[in-house]
Amino acid sequence: MAEQSVTMAPGTGGRRTEWLAPLARRAEGVVLPVAALIAGFALFALFLLMLGKSPVDFYELVYKAGFGTAFSWQNTLSRAAPLLFAALCVALPARLGLVVIGGEGAIVLGGTATGALGVCLAGTPGVVGLPLMALGGALTGALWIGAVGALRHYRGVNETIASLLMAYIGIALMNFLVEGPLRDPASLNKPSTAPLPRSLQVGDIPGMDVHWGLIVALVCCVLTWVLIERTSWGFAARIAGGNVRAAQVQGLPVGRLIVGFTALGGAFAGLAGFYEVAAVQGSANASLAAGYGYTGILIAFLARQNPLAIIPVAILLAGFEASSGLVQRRMDLPDATILVLKAVVFVVILVSDTLYGRFRLFSPERWRTR
Amino acid sequence: MTAALHAKTPAPGGALAVETVGMTMRFGGFTALDDVSIRIAPGTLHALLGENGAGKSTLVKCMMGFYHASSGQLMVAGREAPVADPRQAHALGLGMVYQHFTLVPSLTAAENLVISREDAPRVIDWRRETAALEEFMARMPFRVPLGQPVSALAAGEKQKLEILKQLYLGRRFLILDEPTSVLTPDEADEVLGHVKALCSAGEITVLMITHKFREVTAFADDVSVLRRGRLVGQGRVADLSHARMAAMMMGEATLPAPAARHGTPGEVVLAVEGAVAPDRSGLKEISVDDLKVRAGEIVGIAGISGNGQMEFMEMLTGQRALISGGMQVNGTPYHATRGEQRRLAIRTLPEEPLRNACAPRMSVAENIAFRSFDAKGAGGKGAPSSFWLNRRQMRKRGEALVAGFKVRTTSVDAPIAALSGGNVQRAVLARELSGDVDLLIISNPCFGLDFAAVSEIRTRIMAARNAGTAVLLMSEDLDEILELSDRVLVMSEGRIVYEVPAAEADIPTLGSHMGGHHMGGHA
Ligand SMILES: Nc1ncnc2c1ncn2[C@@H]1O[C@H](COP(=O)(O)OP(=O)(O)OP(=O)(O)O)[C@@H](O)[C@H]1O
Ligand SMILES: [Mg+2]
To answer: What's the pLDDT tens digit per position in B298-344?
Structure first.
């Protein structure tokens, strides 16, 4: 080729804005979701105005009830734990280009398995029983969502539909088990498994009214980030997610990657179920299907499937959940109001996804040589 | 909406004069087109030449309204014609035929034509439309069968249909972006012959992007040459030699001398025995009875595309499960796993790298690291695997290979999809050809490359052979096969039907086997 055929390597330019180039693309990943979130709030404010309520009051109440006091923070944080796990169950498969939205199924089944194991292990000390229960919950979730990945890879079944339908099956299965074979005869109004003995319950973080699940969930987020950003497995998953054919030509074990990542996501969702039973409810029952799995989808999309970004987003959404009861009662709003807010935000987020790369401001070239 | 469009449509009939004035296109700080002014006289076939990344595709995308030029205008029939989007370009009578096909394979030719109309009625009166189509076809200098599904048409027929579609839509200025890259030389000659006749008849004006000088000399009237976004030469084809055009494209650069072949083939490296797999349609089988590639040997597989080369490549890369038979490398069974590929130093490059060998949204450096990201060091032969990713090293290696293979990109962090077609090919070649390679399986390696890059890549392949690499080369370009191979095989209808030492090969015999006229047929 031409001798003077110069490659445009970085550093060719003399502009002082050069150092901004690598920041530009990152900034896009923060600014766009935040803008979308604000746009979602604004749209929801219009909705409130239509109902004749004051948006200012609404957001102020949400703030107070979710983040205003130490008490509300604890309330928020204990809801954040399952949300963090549920969001990881979306973000991990997303690395492979899979949209898995059925984490709810893995949560309820993981919780049911925990409850059932608790019955079998009654009498064992916590150091033995709790890890076994956690393992049981995680494995159940891993099998459930791993099956979605396997169906996708080996049978070509759409993972989004499969996981969603399997979530309904999972909930039905949980209801069948806690109302039938696993039911504690003493649970009259609300069919449940037998209450866990004290020794098999997860305690609180010292000095807080928040269970240990929060710490574990935060650690899992960090470890997941390390896995997908800093290890060759995560990179291999990105290749497979970016182009399956290229991954196959490179000899990468695409099937194992898909099943492995979906199963790991499922294991996290199963852990959410474990903590709901072992730390919050004390037994497995229909309250497990509280919609954490679905909120997790919203969180993962808002966080652009980045496990570290999931942390603040999950805490924000947990604050909404924590405040919803109070806000709806105080302002005399229908029960589904927070759901409407979540839906509006979700739609705006999806729309904002089409805007990436549209703004010159965020193009690294914009800040390079001229 | 439609009424407004129609109002702007110039009176039908007659080739258009089109001119770009000071067309400039910047992507951020990078200038892909710099003040390009080209006048294309009505009724001429104008060739646009330029090395990879010169800005050819960018120029025509600006003309068609896919990109908004940073400055400069488009003039159509002597009047300024702003094109904000492709619909406006269409309304002006401008149309484009792409390198890849845009027809709907499951629909018939007739259906494809009718649905492509912007004013296609909601409810289509097929009897009337068919009559109108037949009347239209009767006026055309060449035709294609209207009633067959497009998937049943050969590549040449499809390309003819693409051009007919443009004429049917009333386009009077056609842009062809590497229109013959999917065709055999005979098909290319036929299609371009028809295009040229339409130009001479004053029906259309054509701007054609190509890398093939032969086509320029045989069919074009005028030529313009781009280099790094600038117009660096223009002239009448009759006045220009190939050497002159090449010099305009490359500036002062000189071509590397073609690599000499030395050394003789050694041990068998790749052996394919009785390998059978279903083809794409699932109705027929690809069956390779006995194929051996030795160290220090290039085995070329010639054939018209669609005769099983793609499937065979997938069999070799482990993407297509075998029904029976198997493959061996160095005498042991081979399944194309990553471990085997690294231990045995096997590299593969399928055709259409952006679709088959890249993750388009990942960066250039990341795509270049596909072979080495999970190994210590540069991921050479038998390198120990590494769990942790070394991002700094990945970037450094990316920069070194980008420089070494002269990949033109704004930065190694740019997504690989933003590179020009030829530069994607170079980036992937940089990945697959670096380090020790014992077996290289490669398909159409020079697809879409400019002539200088072609000669450089062929030199690298020959150098690998001389160093003892076993090379299996599949190509639709007979010249390439004959230049590089030690042995030539012909693949037709999913089978190897002919084999000859390259020194004894002659084009007519190869051609007739490629076309399926081999003696005795196959079982
Ligand atoms: N959307 C884009 N964003 C950034 N840079 C781009 C974009 N499109 C093209 N470029 C750059 O502009 C230059 C010209 O690209 P173009 O596709 O026009 O080349 P070309 O002449 O068609 O080359 P080839 O023969 O390889 O197809 C290239 O360096 C390419 O990287
Ligand atoms: Mg191009």
So the answer is: 999 998 777 888 889 999 998 888 999 999 999 999 999 999 999 99
Q: What is the DSSP letter of B260?
A: P
- Record: contact B370-A250, CB cut-off 8 A: yes
User: A184 is written with which tokens?
Assistant: 């504690």
Which helix (H) or strand (E) element contains residue B230? strand B230-236
Domains delineated in chain B: 3-249 (3.40.50.300), 265-345+438-444+468-523 (3.40.50.300), 351-435 (no CATH)
Q: Say whether B59 sits in a helix, a strand or coil.
A: helix
Atom number of ligand 1 nearest to Cα B419: 31
Q: Is residue B49 classed as helix, strand or coil in its secondary structure?
A: strand
pLDDT tens track for B366-413: 999 999 999 887 777 878 888 999 999 999 999 999 999 889 888 898
- List pLDDT tens digits, range B32-53: 999 999 999 999 999 999 888 8
| Structural domain boundaries enclosing A269 | 83-331
Residue B523: pLDDT over 50: no
Q: Is residue A51 part of a domain?
A: no
The Cα–Cα gap between A277 and A193 comes to 10
Other C-beta atoms closer than 10 Å to the C-beta of A70 total 9
CA atoms within 13 A on the CB side of B498: 27
Does ligand 1 come within 6 angstroms of the Cβ of B62? no
Which numbered ligand comes closest to the C-alpha of B211?
A: 1
Mean pLDDT of chain A: 88
| Structure-token pair, residue A18 | 């050069």
- B20, B58, B231, best to mutate for ligand 1 pocket (most atoms within 8 Å of CB): B58
For residues B290 and B322, is the Cβ–Cβ distance under 8 A?
Answer: no
Asked whether the beta carbons of B164 and B140 are under 8 A apart, the reply is yes
| Rounded CA separation B222/B199 (Å) | 12
Rg of the Cα atoms in chain B: 24
Distance from CA of B228 to the nearest CA of A (A): 9
A5 is a domain residue: no
Q: Are strands B18-27 and B30-40 parallel, antiparallel or unpaired?
A: antiparallel
Number of domains, chain A: 1
What distance in Å separates residue A142's CA from the closest CA in chain B?
23
Q: Give the model confidence (pLDDT) of B401-437 as tens digits.
A: 999 988 988 889 889 998 988 899 899 999 998 888 9
Instruction: Provide mean pLDDT across the span B262-272.
Output: 91
Nearest CA in chain A to B408: A7
User: Which protein residue has the closest C-alpha to ligand 1 atom 7?
Assistant: B418
Order of strands across the sheet that contains B470-475 = B332-333, B324-329, B268-278, B285-294, B495-501, B487-492, B297-302, B470-475, B439-443, B346-349
Task: Identify which of B27, B371, B406 has the shortest CB distance to residue A1.
Answer: B406
Residue B218 CA from chain centroid, whole number: 20
Q: Which residue has the higher pLDDT, A203 or A295?
A: A295
Alpha carbon distance B85, B83 (integer Å): 6
- Does the pLDDT of residue B488 top 60, yes or no? yes
Domain membership flag for residue A16? no
Q: Is A310 contained in some domain?
A: yes
B362 phi, psi to nearest 5 deg = -80, 160
